């Protein structure tokens, strides 16, 4: 069975951005550090970071001690911006993708409900920021550290308000 999924590119990009959000106002984080921390292949991560830079979400510093930094505060970067920067427009079904044409678009009985669902998803992703994600997720654990039991640990902070 196939599932609706976030692309690997958006998943990896969000992971890297969470690290940069935790380091906000700190030292740049190198591509090697990001790759090792999140187990993301370095060449793929370099492409992702380039796209994030082109969309104004990160900046790169060069030379010794260089790496990536967030270009704006984590509270000013929405998940919708991240997904759009890496994957383009959010479209749950073909008829909502501005780059594609659905063969039954005219007169489709489900198109209106997909438009509503897509709009709600976009609104929700727009309401969540990198700060929200960082506050909901624990910091990376040192190797060998057991996971906290469900309902315990630093990642348990309550619900995100919409």
CATH superfamily: Winged helix-like DNA-binding domain superfamily/Winged helix DNA-binding domain
Radius of gyration: 18 Å
CATH architecture: Orthogonal Bundle
Please mark out the parts with pLDDT under 50 across 5 or more consecutive residues, or reply none.
143-162
- Total beta-strand segments: 2
Rounded average pLDDT: 83
> What is the succession of H and E elements?
HHHEEHHH
Task: Tell me, briefly, the overall form.
Answer: elongated
Write down the domain tally: 1
Task: Kindly name the structural category.
Answer: mainly alpha
CATH topology: Arc Repressor Mutant, subunit A
Tell me, what is the CATH class? Mainly Alpha
Strand content: under 5%
Described by strand count, sense and barrel closure, the largest sheet is: 2 strands, antiparallel
Distance between the termini: 31 Å
The tally of helices reads 6
Helix content: 40-55%
How is the largest sheet built, in terms of strand order?
A: 1-2
